[in-house]
């Protein structure tokens, strides 16, 4: 399971829906793996506006990564670079050195880091969602539905 997934999941227990403690779920006893994924700044820059940044910072910290406290403001990249096929960015798509650093960090955290085994714990009810062989099980046992 990628860390990105944690940014879109909150506890499914009904009583937790209204609790701010049910998001994000907290990683516990995690075993991480790193996979090499082609660097795609366009994808990252499109993803960035949709992320809940404070939640991502929290989740990242739990996995041992430090992200800046405030969401980086990156220039919006366009598809031009992707369309040319050579992967080079044209002049409109150049990003500064600091932005590049942030993008590389996000790439490592969001794209290349995988939780192989572990748990995600709800801060409201304490329910533990298991992660086994990279797959998170977010189904609740029948007595909690
Ligand atoms: Zn809960």
UniProtKB/TrEMBL annotation:
<dbReference type="InterPro" id="IPR005651">
    <property type="entry name" value="Trm112-like"/>
</dbReference>
<dbReference type="GO" id="GO:0030488">
    <property type="term" value="P:tRNA methylation"/>
</dbReference>
<protein>
    <recommendedName>
        <fullName>Trm112p-like protein</fullName>
    </recommendedName>
</protein>
<comment type="similarity">
    <text>Belongs to the TRM112 family.</text>
</comment>
<dbReference type="Pfam" id="PF03966">
    <property type="entry name" value="Trm112p"/>
</dbReference>
<dbReference type="GO" id="GO:0046982">
    <property type="term" value="F:protein heterodimerization activity"/>
</dbReference>
<dbReference type="InterPro" id="IPR039127">
    <property type="entry name" value="Trm112"/>
</dbReference>
<dbReference type="GO" id="GO:0070476">
    <property type="term" value="P:rRNA (guanine-N7)-methylation"/>
</dbReference>
